[in-house]
Amino acid sequence: MATQPHGGELAVEQASPSETPPKNDQVDLAIDQLRAGARDLASSNVAALAQCSSEVLDHVVKCSREWVDVACRIKSIPPGSAGRGEEVLAGPGGVTRYLRLMINTLGDIARTGKPELPGKVSMLEDGRLQVPMFPARGIYDSVMFAGIKAEARMQSGVTQANLHGDRLERLTATNAAPRIGVVLGAGNVSSIPIADSLTRVFQDGNAVLLKLNPVQDDLKSVFEDALRPLIKRGWLQIVTGGADVGAAAVYHPEVDEVHITGSHHTHDAIVWGHDPEERARRKQENDPLLKKPITSEMGNVSPWIIVPGNYSEKELRSQATHLAASLANNAGFNCLTTRMIITWKKWPDRQRFLDMVQEVLKTIPPRVAYYPGAAERYERFTGETPAIDDQGRIPWKLITDLDPAERPILFEDESFICVTSETQLDAETPEAFLENAVEFANDQLFGTLSSSMTLPNDFRKRNPKLVSQSIDRMRYGSVCINQWSALVYGLMTPPWGGAPESTLDNVQSGIGSVHNTYFLEGVDKTVLQGPLCNMPKPVWFPTHKTAEEIGWKLADLYHHPSITKLPGLMWAGIRG
């Protein structure tokens, strides 16, 4: 079994379905403890789910300081650095937001039978529905994230009557069959395994066996304290260990379904087999090794398209900082890190913009490459030996003017390291460039998870139809205008996952989604839009001075929302 670049560290045992599934005492004990809990969860009503969500929120808040301390120790993040703010926001901060949103939504369903959306559903020109997702109500999003909105563009055939599919019926049924699901946790972001598990419990009705990635094993006791209300009810168990533990969990006969955050290589090993010849044969015969449903969130060569136009100096610098932040966040170990900047060959400001990105990166201290295999991946993707310092830090790398024929790996696979690239496309006009860039991202870059696009205001005013059509043509689970796609993950109301066309034998960036706190069914993509210049400074910028303070204040706001907490948050934002 090989550890893959990120996510759920597991490959399958080299065994056929006819052989006895791998066994593990830790897994067997956890399944024994989940068996009764699965029956209890299947018979629980919405009020009971809301009550448990509230209890978990209290426990998460109590454990949050220790959670961040341990996460920072794992990643060698020193006190007072920007990295600590990231760990608050992408750790307990994100989980408290999810839980507050889930409490609110479950309350809506208990009262009225359905979630209360944060606005009116509208119709696109082609007749498909567009559903508002953000800003959410009740937690002051419109104040804290001014100028940002997100909507879900639905698939054809979705109507207001079937907006939630059968999700609400399944949620409110108290005679459902008990189900146990395995979650193979990511190792790079501490909120991912927790939010994935909470999604499975509160939205899908699974009692969950969470297998931690070994990178996060030291967080096990903290996670158990944070999720104590679920564990007491028998709705969740946590196990640690290597790939043998993961294999025993996935193929356990009493496990009904699986969710993984990781690489497509790991997914295919689980579903089709570890041996390359076996995988090829099984795919050809449509005979998966895994005989149970699996959902997944995979990686991506995330594109950021820069549409040429009339930008002010401030707007260019703001977007350059967004791009640099998307690389530097979490030392580049994110599935949504910008991996390919797409520019117009004839854009007069192209070199100036790339210089701005480089200038910002030079101001950001390099980070410890904490994730296993980082140096090897850096060398494989760049062709260079990384200049690792005595603290284990690797400098940021921006490769410009890249030709797909010269280094195809950077277009065809996710590096999962502190490396991003730029490629130029030729076209007669900016409008033609946008059309070419969309086609290039769809056809030449691996994955369908997330994408971003910088659009000048004058271009949007001249070409509203082209912009909307270009967004529609992007085959990604999220398309973000002037903003980094990490926002879609962190907001929790939108579904987070790959484009819906993925299949078991061509998984791309995954099948299904997590989060989605309004229980939508049939989403084509999330479209998030924001200004070219955010005010105040975005808390995810690595140059932000008060990110950790804001993270703790946001977690407190989500714990007990109150307008009286806004002045302190706004003052911290101004000082950032």
Q: Which CATH architecture of the domain at 302-486 is right?
A: 3-Layer(aba) Sandwich
Strand composition percent: 5-15%
- The beta-strand count equals 19
User: What would CATH call the homologous superfamily of the domain at 302-486?
Assistant: Aldehyde Dehydrogenase, Chain A, domain 2
Short structural description:
Helix content is 42%, strand content 15%. With 576 residues, it is α/β, with parallel strands linked by helices.
Task: Map the helices and strands.
Elements: H1 25-42, H2 46-75, H3 82-112, E1 122-123, E2 129-134, H4 141-144, E3 149-154, H5 167-172, E4 179-184, H6 191-202, E5 206-211, H7 220-226, H8 228-233, E6 236-239, H9 243-250, E7 257-261, H10 264-272, H11 276-285, E8 294-297, E9 302-306, H12 313-328, E10 338-344, H13 350-363, E11 367-368, H14 374-382, E12 393-394, E13 397-399, H15 409-412, E14 419-425, H16 430-444, E15 450-454, H17 457-462, H18 464-473, E16 478-481, H19 486-491, E17 495-496, E18 514-515, E19 523-529, H20 547-559, H21 566-575
Parallel strand pairs: 4-5, 4-7, 5-6, 7-8, 9-10, 9-15, 10-14, 13-14, 15-16, 16-19
Antiparallel strand pairs: 1-2, 2-3, 3-19, 11-12, 17-18
